Amino acid sequence: MLIFIGGGIGSVLRYYISILFKSNSTNFPWSTFIANILGCFLIGIIVGLIYKYFTLNNEITSFFIIGFCGGLTTFSTFANENFNLFNSNQIEIMVLYIISSILIGIAMIFLGLFSSKFI
After folding, report:
1. Within 10 A of 13 (CB to CB), how many other CB atoms are there?
2. What is the pTM of this model?
3. What are the CA-CA distances from residue 75 to residues 12, 26, 79 (Å)?
4. Where are the domains of the chain?
5. What was the pLDDT predicted at 58?
C-alpha cells in the first residue's frame, strides 16, 4: 500500500513537471530530464536521512524510494525519447541527453547524500 501511495504522489509530481517544462524548439526532452535528475537528488537526500535518523526499514524505503521516487522518475520514457531522437536523426541531442542524464544523475545522488548531512 505504501508503494502504491508513494508512487501515486510521485507520478502526479512527474505529470506537473511535464506541464511546466514542455520541450522547446531544441527538442531536448526537458521534462523527463528534470524529473529524473530531481528524483536522483531526492533519492540521495532520502537515503542520507534514513541512515542518519532511522534504521533502514521497509516502510520508509517502500514509500519514498520505491514508491515516490519510482513514480517520479521514468526510465522507459527516457529510453523511448532517445529512440525517437535517433529515428528523427537528432543524434547529437540523443547523445547529449544520454550522457548528461547519467553523469548529472549520479552527481545529484552524491549532492543529495551530501546535503542530507545538513538537514
Report:
1. 17
2. 0.92
3. 16, 21, 6
4. 2-19+29-118
5. 79
